[in-house]
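Aim 2, interim progress: modelling of the S-adenosyl-L-homocysteine-bound target.
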Amino acid sequence: MSTPRILLKAKRARPFFGMHPWVYAGAIEAVSGDPKDGDVVEVVSHVGNFIARGLYNSQSKIRVRLYTWDAQQSLDADFFRAQLQRAIQLRRDVLRLTGACRLVFSEADGLSGLSIDQFDRWLVVQFTSLALAMRREMFADLLTELVQPAGIYLRTERGIGQLEGLELQDGSLRGDAPGPLTIDENGLRVQISLTEGQKTGYYLDQRENRLAVGRLAVGRRMLDAFCYSGGFALHAARAGASAVLGVDASEPALQLARTNAELNGLTNIVFEKADVFNRLGTLVEAMERFGVIVLDPPKFARAGSAVDEAMRGYRRLLQQSLRLLEPGGIFAMCCCSGLIKREMLHDLLAQEASQARRLLQILESRGAAADHPVSALCPETEYLKCVICRVN
Ligand code: SAH
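Predicted structure of the complex, ligand included:
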């Protein structure tokens, strides 16, 4: 039986010859061979030339995710083992990461729709592709073979059922679900919950940004807005901040944050439950001042249509922060929406700084840690920005 074929429209093949992995429905002229969701398909140009092999999903706007551009390569367990091995090798042998890290980052590792974080001896697997999720037993076997984890736990992202037609429940794929774990991050002890925590349990992507902001906080009063389990706050307090206030709307997150402060013997941090938008306002009214402010809100823009509103949210947060920031203060603005580009944040900073008549210097415009690489062939893999500024 021959592999089902996806015939592209004329003039729509270029991104895929360029190795971009997402074939949207709009680029497709015809589907032949009656592929089922999750099946291997060949993507061919309008004159029938092989371009790439991928996995089909009629329920997703991304109709085909591409994995190989080699006509001889089949998408079997050996292929996926090699992709996983290459991803793991980057973290172990090149980056030499020994602690918690992201082992696999989807398109950035040639595995569109699969992310894997390692915490202690556990793996947390997150599928954002129906076709890969259907192969989860194979992935669990391969990961057992390659990493020998104590357990593999499955987490699902909100909204993915709708995007991919994917109905998965959080739960253990191998081994028992672990209780709370303590990992080491830059020498701090951080408690996480793989089963209850946000995302895969912890935001590993900010690991190096926390260190970068923390070292600028010596002797200053710091506000960690949207603090989750306290990542930025802990780093600043350890570096010698005079006092730290962490604010988040989630009580479970704050409980983790308080535990983390205790675990590290840090006594100059207060964690407060509040809506950051409101709390910034009351801090301004009370004429409070900070020497360091970090804003790390959740993804405001999930779809292109939400970008304008997200930017309005950022603008409000920035305006209030500038009022709270003492002269010469450090401001770190983070953004994890891929749809909001770095230049847009730099523009926003320029607009609001000039409006407030303050000189704003960008000291570092950072991204995610290197275990969350950016694929040059899939620019959408660049999502996290952390712009660290000094505001006079
Ligand atoms: N800075 C954190 C990650 C932040 S994730 C770290 O370094 O790990 C975003 C956080 O924003 C989540 O913890 C979520 O609970 C919180 N959040 C979302 N909307 C909020 C709001 N309006 N006010 C306060 N916190 C909010």
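The mean pLDDT is 96. The pocket of S-adenosyl-L-homocysteine is lined by residues 198, 203, 206, 226-229, 231-232, 248-250, 253, 275-277, 296-298 (CB under 6 Å).
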